[in-house]
Amino acid sequence: MKVISFAMGSLGLIALASPGPFAGPASREVVHLSSETVSAAFAKGKPLVEIENYKVHASRREAPGQVEVHTRDTDVIHVLTGTATFVTGGTMVGGKDVEPEEIRGSSIDGGTTRELRPGDLIIVPSGTPHWFKDVPAPMTYFVVKVRAVGEAR
């Protein structure tokens, strides 16, 4: 499959430049994650690499989620399988801090609605409300979270 090959190639490039899975910010080791490791992560939807200034997640979604706002992280999302109705922008309704620099809400007023499908790439800048509003069947996607330098908004 070209989509999976592209995604795996992209992950390989990221891994060459990144520290190990769950490595500390000082780590500068090359990382190689086997296809078995990546597949197992997608089966459950879990992080592959998390360090101070970026994260790589093998995400799996089987239902709609809450509205999210990351005050310092930009999400780069590449859809591998499945589809979703995805809303960005607008105003978050019912927003509450759930952890530092992470806000969750129940819906979005306004915003732009897009239909995501395999092969799509969407970049959600930090501070932008976003929402997987409808997920009709399981979907998998890579998320690279890039941390903004400096203080939270």
Care to describe what's here?
It contains two helices and 13 strands; from the N terminus they run H-H-E-E-E-E-E-E-E-E-E-E-E-E-E. The strands form four sheets. The protein has a five-stranded antiparallel β-sheet with strand order 1-2-13-4-11. The chain has a three-stranded antiparallel β-sheet with strand order 3-8-7, with no helix packed on it. It has 153 residues and is an alpha+beta fold. 26% of the residues are buried. A hairpin with a 2-residue loop joins strand 7 (96-99) and strand 8 (102-105). It has helices spanning 2-17, 35-44; strands at residues 46-50, 54-61, 67-70, 73-81, 84-88, 91-93, 96-99, 102-105, 107-109, 112-116, 121-124, 130-134, 139-147. It is globular.
- Gross geometry: globular
Q: First CA to last CA: what distance? A: 40 Å
Counting DSSP H or I runs of 4 or more residues, the number of helices is 2
Q: Which whole number gives the mean pLDDT?
A: 85
Radius of gyration: 15 Å
According to DSSP, the number of beta strands is 13
What's the order of the H and E elements? HHEEEEEEEEEEEEE
Which quaternary structure do these chains form? Answer: single chain
Spatial sequence of strands, sheet with the most strands: 1-2-13-4-11
How much beta, percentage-wise?
35-45%
- List low-confidence stretches: 1-26
* Major beta sheet summary: 5 strands, antiparallel
DSSP helix fraction:
10-25%
